[in-house]
Specification:
CATH superfamily of the largest domain: Periplasmic binding protein-like II
Radius of gyration: 25 Å
Helix content: 40-55%
Number of domains: 3
Strand content: 15-25%
Structural class: alpha/beta
Protein backbone atom coordinates (compact mmCIF):
# COMPACT_ATOMS: atom_id res chain seq x y z
CA UNK A 1 0.00 0.00 0.00
CA UNK A 2 2.64 2.52 1.08
CA UNK A 3 4.85 1.48 -1.82
CA UNK A 4 2.44 2.78 -4.45
CA UNK A 5 1.68 5.94 -2.49
CA UNK A 6 5.36 6.75 -1.98
CA UNK A 7 6.18 5.90 -5.58
CA UNK A 8 3.45 8.26 -6.80
CA UNK A 9 4.70 11.03 -4.47
CA UNK A 10 8.31 10.50 -5.57
CA UNK A 11 7.57 10.81 -9.26
CA UNK A 12 5.25 13.79 -8.82
CA UNK A 13 8.13 15.52 -7.01
CA UNK A 14 10.63 14.39 -9.64
CA UNK A 15 8.53 15.29 -12.69
CA UNK A 16 7.10 18.45 -11.18
CA UNK A 17 3.50 17.54 -11.96
CA UNK A 18 0.87 14.84 -11.47
CA UNK A 19 0.53 14.47 -15.23
CA UNK A 20 4.26 13.89 -15.63
CA UNK A 21 4.25 11.26 -12.88
CA UNK A 22 1.30 9.47 -14.51
CA UNK A 23 3.16 9.43 -17.81
CA UNK A 24 6.32 8.12 -16.13
CA UNK A 25 4.49 5.31 -14.32
CA UNK A 26 2.16 4.58 -17.23
CA UNK A 27 -1.01 5.02 -15.18
CA UNK A 28 -3.88 7.50 -15.24
CA UNK A 29 -3.41 10.92 -13.68
CA UNK A 30 -6.40 10.37 -11.29
CA UNK A 31 -4.61 7.30 -9.92
CA UNK A 32 -1.53 9.37 -9.10
CA UNK A 33 -3.67 12.07 -7.45
CA UNK A 34 -5.47 9.44 -5.36
CA UNK A 35 -2.21 7.84 -4.20
CA UNK A 36 -0.73 11.20 -3.12
CA UNK A 37 -3.97 12.26 -1.40
CA UNK A 38 -4.09 8.91 0.44
CA UNK A 39 -0.50 9.40 1.62
CA UNK A 40 -1.23 12.92 2.88
CA UNK A 41 -4.53 11.87 4.46
CA UNK A 42 -3.11 8.77 6.17
CA UNK A 43 -0.42 10.76 7.97
CA UNK A 44 -2.18 14.13 8.19
CA UNK A 45 0.67 15.89 6.39
CA UNK A 46 0.81 18.40 3.54
CA UNK A 47 3.46 17.31 1.02
CA UNK A 48 2.77 19.78 -1.80
CA UNK A 49 1.65 23.38 -1.97
CA UNK A 50 -0.95 23.47 -4.75
CA UNK A 51 -1.96 26.63 -6.60
CA UNK A 52 -3.78 26.03 -9.85
CA UNK A 53 -1.58 23.71 -11.89
CA UNK A 54 1.54 24.71 -10.01
CA UNK A 55 2.87 22.47 -7.23
CA UNK A 56 5.77 22.94 -4.86
CA UNK A 57 7.17 20.69 -2.16
CA UNK A 58 6.45 21.71 1.43
CA UNK A 59 9.33 21.43 3.95
CA UNK A 60 7.98 18.01 5.01
CA UNK A 61 7.62 17.05 1.35
CA UNK A 62 11.22 18.01 0.62
CA UNK A 63 12.52 15.90 3.50
CA UNK A 64 10.41 12.94 2.41
CA UNK A 65 11.69 13.39 -1.15
CA UNK A 66 15.27 13.20 0.15
CA UNK A 67 14.36 9.82 1.63
CA UNK A 68 12.56 8.52 -1.48
CA UNK A 69 15.68 9.22 -3.52
CA UNK A 70 17.14 6.14 -1.86
CA UNK A 71 13.95 4.17 -2.04
CA UNK A 72 12.64 1.70 -2.36
CA UNK A 73 14.60 -0.29 0.14
CA UNK A 74 13.98 2.48 2.69
CA UNK A 75 10.19 2.42 2.80
CA UNK A 76 10.13 1.88 6.54
CA UNK A 77 12.38 4.89 7.10
CA UNK A 78 9.92 7.00 5.10
CA UNK A 79 6.94 5.69 7.09
CA UNK A 80 8.71 6.33 10.40
CA UNK A 81 9.39 9.91 9.32
CA UNK A 82 5.77 10.47 8.32
CA UNK A 83 4.62 9.18 11.71
CA UNK A 84 6.72 11.84 13.46
CA UNK A 85 5.00 14.47 11.30
CA UNK A 86 1.60 12.99 12.10
CA UNK A 87 2.37 13.22 15.82
CA UNK A 88 3.58 16.83 15.35
CA UNK A 89 7.05 15.92 16.60
CA UNK A 90 8.48 17.55 13.50
CA UNK A 91 7.40 20.38 11.24
CA UNK A 92 7.88 24.01 10.36
CA UNK A 93 5.70 27.09 10.73
CA UNK A 94 6.62 30.23 8.85
CA UNK A 95 5.26 33.46 10.35
CA UNK A 96 4.83 36.82 8.66
CA UNK A 97 3.82 39.62 11.03
CA UNK A 98 3.34 43.39 11.11
CA UNK A 99 5.07 43.65 14.50
CA UNK A 100 7.12 41.55 16.90
CA UNK A 101 5.10 41.50 20.14
CA UNK A 102 2.16 39.17 19.40
CA UNK A 103 4.08 36.82 17.15
CA UNK A 104 6.80 36.35 19.80
CA UNK A 105 4.18 35.62 22.47
CA UNK A 106 2.63 33.01 20.20
CA UNK A 107 6.02 31.60 19.23
CA UNK A 108 7.01 31.15 22.88
CA UNK A 109 3.78 29.28 23.63
CA UNK A 110 4.24 27.06 20.57
CA UNK A 111 7.85 26.23 21.38
CA UNK A 112 6.85 25.29 24.92
CA UNK A 113 4.24 22.85 23.63
CA UNK A 114 6.10 21.58 20.54
CA UNK A 115 9.86 22.12 20.99
CA UNK A 116 10.63 20.12 17.84
CA UNK A 117 8.78 22.54 15.57
CA UNK A 118 11.02 24.85 13.54
CA UNK A 119 9.82 28.45 13.28
CA UNK A 120 10.84 31.39 11.11
CA UNK A 121 9.55 34.96 11.42
CA UNK A 122 9.44 37.79 8.88
CA UNK A 123 8.31 41.31 9.80
CA UNK A 124 6.47 43.14 7.03
CA UNK A 125 3.59 45.52 6.31
CA UNK A 126 0.08 44.07 6.05
CA UNK A 127 -0.03 43.83 2.26
CA UNK A 128 3.24 41.89 2.25
CA UNK A 129 1.95 39.57 4.99
CA UNK A 130 -1.10 38.70 2.88
CA UNK A 131 1.12 38.17 -0.17
CA UNK A 132 3.27 35.82 1.90
CA UNK A 133 0.19 33.76 2.81
CA UNK A 134 -1.13 33.62 -0.74
CA UNK A 135 2.30 32.66 -2.09
CA UNK A 136 2.89 29.92 0.53
CA UNK A 137 5.86 31.88 1.87
CA UNK A 138 4.13 32.02 5.26
CA UNK A 139 1.79 29.64 7.05
CA UNK A 140 0.54 32.13 9.63
CA UNK A 141 0.13 35.89 9.38
CA UNK A 142 -0.24 38.34 12.28
CA UNK A 143 -1.92 41.53 11.09
CA UNK A 144 -3.48 44.66 12.55
CA UNK A 145 -6.98 44.32 11.12
CA UNK A 146 -9.51 41.66 10.23
CA UNK A 147 -8.56 40.64 6.70
CA UNK A 148 -11.05 37.77 6.23
CA UNK A 149 -11.84 37.14 2.56
CA UNK A 150 -12.78 34.35 0.18
CA UNK A 151 -9.28 32.91 0.56
CA UNK A 152 -8.15 34.19 3.99
CA UNK A 153 -9.28 32.90 7.39
CA UNK A 154 -8.86 35.57 10.08
CA UNK A 155 -9.51 35.47 13.86
CA UNK A 156 -9.09 38.07 16.61
CA UNK A 157 -6.13 37.51 18.92
CA UNK A 158 -5.36 40.57 21.08
CA UNK A 159 -5.70 44.32 21.55
CA UNK A 160 -3.27 46.92 22.90
CA UNK A 161 -3.92 50.38 24.32
CA UNK A 162 -2.61 53.40 22.41
CA UNK A 163 -0.67 56.20 24.14
CA UNK A 164 0.16 59.70 23.04
CA UNK A 165 3.93 60.17 23.37
CA UNK A 166 5.54 63.56 23.94
CA UNK A 167 9.02 64.91 24.47
CA UNK A 168 10.02 65.44 28.13
CA UNK A 169 10.15 69.18 27.48
CA UNK A 170 6.51 69.25 26.36
CA UNK A 171 3.94 71.21 28.37
CA UNK A 172 1.99 68.00 29.17
CA UNK A 173 4.92 65.99 30.46
CA UNK A 174 3.91 66.32 34.14
CA UNK A 175 0.59 64.57 33.44
CA UNK A 176 -0.24 60.86 33.36
CA UNK A 177 -3.41 61.28 31.33
CA UNK A 178 -5.12 63.96 29.25
CA UNK A 179 -8.40 64.60 27.49
CA UNK A 180 -8.52 64.49 23.71
CA UNK A 181 -9.40 68.20 23.41
CA UNK A 182 -6.05 69.12 25.00
CA UNK A 183 -4.31 67.92 21.84
CA UNK A 184 -6.09 70.40 19.55
CA UNK A 185 -3.60 72.13 17.27
CA UNK A 186 -0.63 70.04 18.45
CA UNK A 187 2.00 69.31 15.77
CA UNK A 188 1.83 65.56 15.19
CA UNK A 189 4.25 63.25 13.45
CA UNK A 190 1.91 61.15 11.33
CA UNK A 191 2.49 57.47 10.73
CA UNK A 192 2.08 55.92 7.28
CA UNK A 193 -1.39 55.28 5.87
CA UNK A 194 -1.31 51.54 6.65
CA UNK A 195 -0.69 52.19 10.37
CA UNK A 196 -3.64 50.93 12.43
CA UNK A 197 -2.27 52.90 15.40
CA UNK A 198 -2.57 56.18 13.52
CA UNK A 199 -5.96 55.15 12.13
CA UNK A 200 -7.35 54.46 15.63
CA UNK A 201 -6.13 57.85 16.89
CA UNK A 202 -7.49 59.71 13.86
CA UNK A 203 -10.92 58.12 14.33
CA UNK A 204 -10.99 58.99 18.04
CA UNK A 205 -9.88 62.57 17.36
CA UNK A 206 -12.51 63.00 14.64
CA UNK A 207 -15.22 61.66 16.97
CA UNK A 208 -14.17 64.25 19.58
CA UNK A 209 -14.06 67.04 17.01
CA UNK A 210 -10.34 67.58 17.61
CA UNK A 211 -7.88 68.47 14.86
CA UNK A 212 -4.12 68.16 15.26
CA UNK A 213 -1.54 69.84 13.04
CA UNK A 214 0.30 67.28 10.86
CA UNK A 215 4.04 67.99 11.02
CA UNK A 216 5.22 65.31 8.57
CA UNK A 217 4.70 61.62 7.85
CA UNK A 218 7.18 58.90 8.76
CA UNK A 219 7.21 55.21 7.97
CA UNK A 220 9.00 53.39 10.79
CA UNK A 221 8.36 53.11 14.51
CA UNK A 222 12.03 53.82 15.13
CA UNK A 223 11.84 56.99 13.05
CA UNK A 224 8.76 58.17 14.94
CA UNK A 225 10.49 57.60 18.26
CA UNK A 226 13.58 59.54 17.18
CA UNK A 227 11.49 62.43 15.84
CA UNK A 228 9.70 62.79 19.19
CA UNK A 229 13.03 62.61 21.04
CA UNK A 230 14.19 65.53 18.86
CA UNK A 231 11.10 67.54 19.81
CA UNK A 232 9.66 67.60 16.28
CA UNK A 233 6.13 66.83 17.44
CA UNK A 234 3.94 64.38 19.34
CA UNK A 235 3.06 60.88 18.16
CA UNK A 236 0.96 57.83 18.97
CA UNK A 237 2.40 54.45 19.92
CA UNK A 238 0.74 51.27 21.18
CA UNK A 239 1.71 50.00 24.62
CA UNK A 240 3.61 47.06 23.13
CA UNK A 241 5.75 49.37 20.97
CA UNK A 242 6.63 51.92 23.65
CA UNK A 243 10.10 51.52 25.18
CA UNK A 244 11.10 53.82 28.07
CA UNK A 245 13.47 56.61 27.10
CA UNK A 246 14.74 59.52 29.21
CA UNK A 247 13.41 62.02 26.63
CA UNK A 248 9.97 60.45 26.15
CA UNK A 249 6.76 60.49 28.18
CA UNK A 250 3.61 58.43 27.46
CA UNK A 251 0.13 59.83 28.14
CA UNK A 252 -3.16 57.96 28.32
CA UNK A 253 -6.18 59.68 26.74
CA UNK A 254 -8.89 59.37 29.39
CA UNK A 255 -11.94 60.09 27.24
CA UNK A 256 -11.07 57.92 24.21
CA UNK A 257 -11.00 54.17 23.71
CA UNK A 258 -8.01 53.70 21.43
CA UNK A 259 -6.55 50.28 20.73
CA UNK A 260 -4.55 48.46 18.12
CA UNK A 261 -5.75 44.94 17.41
CA UNK A 262 -3.99 41.79 16.35
CA UNK A 263 -5.54 39.14 14.13
CA UNK A 264 -4.21 35.73 13.16
CA UNK A 265 -4.61 34.88 9.48
CA UNK A 266 -4.01 31.84 7.29
CA UNK A 267 -5.28 30.49 3.99
CA UNK A 268 -8.77 29.03 4.38
CA UNK A 269 -7.71 26.03 2.32
CA UNK A 270 -4.96 25.24 4.85
CA UNK A 271 -6.57 26.02 8.22
CA UNK A 272 -7.31 22.33 8.91
CA UNK A 273 -3.78 21.18 8.18
CA UNK A 274 -2.65 19.45 11.40
CA UNK A 275 0.08 21.89 12.45
CA UNK A 276 -1.90 25.00 11.51
CA UNK A 277 -5.03 23.63 13.21
CA UNK A 278 -3.10 22.96 16.41
CA UNK A 279 -1.53 26.43 16.30
CA UNK A 280 -4.94 28.10 15.92
CA UNK A 281 -6.26 26.09 18.87
CA UNK A 282 -3.24 27.13 20.94
CA UNK A 283 -3.82 30.80 20.07
CA UNK A 284 -7.49 30.50 21.05
CA UNK A 285 -6.48 29.04 24.41
CA UNK A 286 -4.35 32.14 25.04
CA UNK A 287 -7.29 34.38 24.09
CA UNK A 288 -9.56 32.47 26.49
CA UNK A 289 -6.98 32.67 29.28
CA UNK A 290 -6.60 36.42 28.78
CA UNK A 291 -10.38 36.92 28.86
CA UNK A 292 -10.57 34.98 32.12
CA UNK A 293 -7.80 37.06 33.69
CA UNK A 294 -9.59 40.28 32.67
CA UNK A 295 -12.73 39.33 34.57
CA UNK A 296 -13.33 41.12 37.90
CA UNK A 297 -11.77 39.26 40.80
CA UNK A 298 -8.74 38.02 38.88
Amino acid sequence: MYQKWLEAFHFVATEGSFTGAARKLNVGQPTISTHVSNLEGRFGVELFHRKGRTIRLTPAGQMLYDITHDLYGHEQEAIAFLNTVKNLEFGEIKFSAVGPYDVMELLAALRERRPGIKCTVRLAVIDEVLEDLEGFNADIGIVGRDCASETIHSVFYNRHKIFVVVNRAHRLTARQSIRMKELAGEPMIMRMASSTTQEAFDNAAAAAGVAVEPAFEIESREGLREAIVRGLGIGVISETEFAPHPELHALAVSDAQMYTRAYIACLKARRNRPLIREFLALAQSLVDKRALMDKPGH
